[in-house]
Design goal:
This protein has 1 helix and 11 strands; from the N terminus they run H-E-E-E-E-E-E-E-E-E-E-E. With 163 residues, the protein is an alpha+beta fold. The chain folds into 2 domains: 35 residues; 114 residues, Immunoglobulin-like (Sandwich), CATH 2.60.40. Strands 1, 2, 3, 4, 5, 6, 7, 8, 9, 10 and 11 form an 11-stranded antiparallel sheet that branches. Strand 6 and strand 7 form a beta hairpin. The longest helix is centred in the N-terminal third of the chain and has 31 residues. It is elongated and about 85 Å long.
Length: 163
């Protein structure tokens, strides 16, 4: 069987070549205008972050769950537990662009030993408006939950910011 692959040369006139070049140029210019407009609108939207700075508790290790507008973020994100202390690592989590406010709450799991895990909760939901972002760190207090009862005394503090 003979090889049936062949290349056929397209023959076009000079006028047709000029028309193709004009169409390509117009398409490029319009694409640049479109991309330029959409990149400006993207630039005007600022990425906001939930920044967990540190945690204060008597427990040696902790796992924090932050809920922002119904989306849960887990700290630490790359380990099961974070050791509590003055040099504990900070972590940032990207927040949704289109929100006009952030409704933030936290819960935490703590462990005093390898066998006992405790939960700390709060019903409080912090609402932060985009047009009035607080400056500096904020504090969110969590209360131990034991046998279905929540303590009246906070045992854990999360230091965080939104920027």
């Amino acid at each position: 069987m003979a090889d049936e692959t062949s290349i056929k040369v397209a023959k076009i006139t000079a006028t047709q070549a000029i028309i193709v070049a004009l169409i390509t140029t117009i398409g490029g210019v319009m694409g640049g205008v479109f991309i330029g407009k959409s990149s400006k609108s993207v630039e005007s939207v600022k990425q906001r972050w939930l920044h967990i700075h540190n945690v204060e508790t008597s427990s040696p290790v902790v796992r924090i769950v932050a809920s922002v507008n119904g989306i849960n973020y887990s700290y630490p994100s790359k380990a099961i537990w974070a050791e509590v202390g003055p040099t504990m690592s900070e972590e940032k989590f990207p927040l949704l662009y289109e929100a006009d406010a952030y409704r933030i709450s936290f819960s935490a799991f703590i462990s005093d030993s390898a066998d006992e895990i405790g939960e700390n909760i709060s019903q409080h939901v912090e609402e932060i408006k985009i047009n009035r972002l607080p400056t500096g760190k904020m504090v969110y207090e969590l209360y131990p939950l034991s046998s279905g009862s929540r303590s009246a005394i906070p045992k854990l503090k999360v230091y965080y910011s939104v920027n």
